């Protein structure tokens, strides 16, 4: 069985800026694997630098901003053991180097060797609205692939958790995603 953690991976770009991307971490037998689709900037950066940072973070606005390509102010702190940075508001982070790459044209697997880990904050427990935002991120990243009726019915269901348990950050992220989906649909309608 493979357990997946939804994280933000930070990697160093060629111009020394930091690339921020939501990426799943696949865990089996205590091994951490990243499976970025090719082509992607995160994949290029990890392969070139042979390293990166896995950020465990509960601010879902960062996930949503990446999906809707909204520029938000993200602060970074230099990593300890590798040439990269982690997110200032990460709860914890893992710095890794590449242990092994399993080549694949569409989706290679990077097996990560952790070289340093730090905890920066408390974990304050689960929140249904945060999970709902992550689910909507996944749907929003698959527009045109997932049937629109399915997306609308999922939104209706996920909205229950938003209505009952969201704070300001979750509502902000949720609204960015709804707006992004709405604009996509309007664009499609205009082109028909
Ligand atoms: C919760 C979540 C998990 C994701 N996991 C993956 C993943 O495991 N592999 C992947 O290629 N993309 C994943 N994505 C989509 C990437 O974030 C997106 O494709 C991104 O643009 C990666 O390309 P980049 O490195 O060029 O930014 C995920 C998105 C979300 C919201």
Poorly predicted segments: none
Structural shape: globular
Rg on CA atoms, Å: 17 Å
Q: Give me the strand/helix succession.
A: EEEHEHEEEEHHH
Topology (SSEs and partners):
Layout: E1 3-12, E2 18-28, E3 31-34, H1 41-49, E4 51-56, H2 60-68, E5 76-78, E6 85-87, E7 92-102, E8 109-119, H3 128-140, H4 148-165, H5 168-191
Antiparallel strand pairs: 1-2, 1-4, 2-3, 3-8, 4-7, 5-6, 7-8
The site of flavin mononucleotide has 18 residues, from β2, α1, α2 and α3.
In short:
With 192 residues, the chain is an alpha+beta fold. It has helices spanning 41-49, 60-68, 128-140, 148-165, 168-191, and strands at 3-12, 18-28, 31-34, 51-56, 76-78, 85-87, 92-102, 109-119.
Describe what you observe in this structure.
With 192 residues, this protein is α+β, with helices and mostly antiparallel strands. The chain folds into 2 domains: 3-119, Pnp Oxidase, Chain A; 128-191, Up-down Bundle (Methane Monooxygenase Hydroxylase, Chain G, domain 1). Helices cover 38% and strands 31% of the residues. The protein contains 5 helices and 8 strands. The protein has helices at 41-49, 60-68, 128-140, 148-165, 168-191; strands spanning 3-12, 18-28, 31-34, 51-56, 76-78, 85-87, 92-102, 109-119. Strands 1-2-3-8-7-4 form a 6-stranded antiparallel beta barrel. Strand 2 (18-28) and strand 3 form a beta hairpin. The relative contact order is 0.15. The model has no long low-confidence stretch (mean pLDDT 97). Flavin mononucleotide is lined by residues 6, 21-24, 35-37, 40-42, 63, 66-67, 134, 137-138, 141.
